[in-house]
Amino acid sequence: MAGVMIMVLLCLSAGTMLGVHGEDPYLFFTWNVTYGTRSPLGIPQQVILINDQFPGPNINSTSNNNIVLNVFNNLDEPFLLTWSGVQQRKNSWQDGVLGTNCPILPGTNFTYHFQVKDQIGSYIYYPTTGMHRAAGGFGGLRINSRLLIPVPYADPEDDYTVILNDWYTSSHATLRKYLDDGRSLARPTGVLINGKNAKGDGKDEPLFTMKPGKTYKYRICNAGIKNTLNFRIQGHTMKLVEMEGSHVVQNVYEALDVHVGQCFSVLVTANQAPKDYYMVTSTRFNKQVLTAKGIIRYTNGKGPASPELPEAPVGWAWSLNQFRSFRWNLTASAARPNPQGSYHYGSINITRTIKLVNSASREGGKLRYALNGVSHVDPETPLKLAEYYGIADKVFKYNTIKDMPSAKIGKVVTQPNVLNQTFRNFVEIIFENHEKSMQSYHLDGYSFFAVAIEPGTWTPEKRKNYNLLDAVSRTTIQVFPKSWAAILLTFDNAGMWNIRSEMWEKTYLGQQLYVSVLSPELSLRDEYNIPDNALLCGKVKGLPKPKPYTI
Q: What region holds the Plastocyanin-like domain (predicted)?
């Protein structure tokens, strides 16, 4: 009957249901966020659990699925989750950052509702409030291709998620107090693979099993807060097939540098003698190397893993060369049937160039991190809500930084940092890192073309070195010390979008900004209305709801 929607609910697992509509399928989740005690490094400590899991549950979705996820906050602090890499088309209301959302207060719940529209790939989710990310609450989010869309490799025997992260034995509250008191974070206590570090005493349970001769997909993500982590598997090579939503040219690697916030998918074939093998991760670019390992077991295996671990590469020139080896697979189809390479980004004229230079300041004894001299603070009223309700002028100012900062960054100013961006402009963003430490940046709401990373400082002449043919479209990019990185993208997704350092102490202390992308039509064709269940706080609480957008 016309106008009638039939919906069938199928229980998949604890906390998950699948709904089948006349439209794209719905996945329903109920998540209970609590504190719990775990001993990831052998010392009992407080961690953040989701449904009693650390790391949190995997979200296993398919292109265009609708995700309805009810989060109950049973912590003693406000809490938010972001879905890093999910583009939230027309829907920054669901982004889960403090510039778009009021946090979920203790003892209350909020239901996220978003669609993984026209996307595939491997991603993570994590908390964006305080230093919660250092305590857990993170996990894997995969978007599988629809059955109708060919994938450029055979179906693997199984599909595994590997969450890497650096780890502190201090609580998130202690780490936050260090930062609030003006101190920076020391090096982490250790590193983890899926929340664990194998002891190597013969009693370790395997993280994964493989059948001899079969090929497996491993989705490897760095959910940490400070360190690049190198990943390798004893005796096995890895064929890279996807990163952050793009199929890539399938090069084979013995080791991969996974920078903070980044995700890779690799294929691994069980073609070695049947026994145990270690997967290994270790910190990069530090004098003291921290290492973790986990066991992969062959199903007919006889014998322990060798105690001799494969060595990590040394220096960042190796890592830069690895970045340059990554290429977009121009003939493969991603979420849509047309080949990825049918989008010729290299032939589009750049309409605006923005150079973002990171800096640190200790003026007044308080450590702050900044972009172009502005250290962002989140106002009590989320920026998107203030803009939507027409009271932006009472909460923040637009364009407090210049597109091209002066050669010397002066005194750091602490205030909300919001850029206005013209809808559908094609923009070049340069990240310039004058410091001696690594950087990793993420942009919400978009993927971008990572066209160059080079040592030194950027000038317009450097454009001749850009990869304008097959740079990978992704959501996170690293910047090496005393180096720069360039990205290109079309700002065609209306909303309020966060650009942030993935080094979470830097984000917490201001190294982030927001880009306001408004459609001139204020139409539902370009952006959704505020959800009925949106949490309200700050200056918009109690205000009448603005007139909704229409077609």
A: 32-146, 158-300, 381-520
Secondary structure of residue 63 in the 3-state scheme: coil
Size of the chain, expressed as the number of residues it contains:
551
Which two structure tokens, joined as six digits, stand for 307?
A: 């105690």
Whose CA is closest to 524, among 499, 500, 549? 549
Could you tell me how far CA 365 lies from the centroid of its own chain? 31
- Joined together, the tokens standing for residue 428 give 């070049």
Answer yes or no: are the C-beta atoms of 421 and 351 closer than 8 Å: no
Q: What would the mean pLDDT of 138-148 be, rounded to a whole number? A: 96
Q: Residue 56: is it exposed, middle or buried by C-beta count within 10 angstroms (0-12/13-18/19+)?
A: buried
Could you tell me the CA-to-CA distances from 40 to 127, 153, 328, 479 in Å, in that order?
A: 19, 35, 37, 30
124 and 262 in contact (C-beta within 8 Å)? no
For range 331-354, the mean pLDDT: 95
Is pLDDT at 14 greater than 80 in this prediction? no
Q: What would the pLDDT profile of 492-527 be if each residue is shown by its tens digit?
A: 999 999 999 999 999 999 999 999 999 999 899 999
Report how far residue 159's alpha carbon sits from residue 171's, in angstroms, rounded to the nearest whole number. Answer: 32
Alpha helices (runs of H) in 338-382, residue ranges in sequence order:
none
The pLDDT tens digits of the residues spanning 522-537 come to: 899 999 999 999 999 9
Give the SS3 label for residue 505: helix
Burial (CB count within 10 angstroms: exposed 0-12, middle 13-18, buried 19+), residue 169: middle
208 HSE (CA, 13 A, CB side): 25
Phi-psi region of 461 (alpha: psi -120 to 50; beta: other; left: phi over 0): alpha
pLDDT of 349 over the 60 cut: yes
3 state DSSP class of 460: helix
Query: What single string gives the DSSP state of each residue in 308-350?
Result: -PPPPP-SHHHHHHHHHH--B-TTSB-SSSSBGGGS-GGGSPP
Whether omega before 55 lies within 30 degrees of 0, making that bond cis, reads yes
- Distance between CA atoms of residues 167 and 165, nearest Å: 6
* Strand locations in 223-367 (E): 229-233, 238-243, 246-247, 252-253, 256-258, 263-269, 276-283, 291-298, 352-361
Cα–Cα dist 303/353, whole Å: 57
Scan for tokens 């002891």, then name that residue. Answer: 199
Contacts of 242 (CB under 8 A, 6+ apart): 120, 121, 122, 248, 264, 265
Residue 362 tokens read as 């200790």
Judged against a pLDDT cut of 50, whether residue 313 lies above it is answered with: yes
| Continuous segment of H or E residues that includes residue 176 | helix 172-180
Tell me the pairing of strands 291-298 and 276-283. Answer: antiparallel
Exposure class string for 69-90: b at 16+ Cβ within 10 A, else e: bebbbebeebbbbbbbbbbbbb
Q: In this model, does residue 113 exceed pLDDT 80? A: yes
Closest to 378 (Cα-Cα) out of 79, 96, 99, 129:
99
For 74, the token pair is: 């049973």
Is residue 54 within 8 A of residue 143, CB to CB? The reply is no
**Nearest by Cα to 273 from 235, 311, 231:** 235
Q: What three-state secondary structure class fits 9?
A: strand
What is the mean predicted confidence (pLDDT) over 199-221? 96
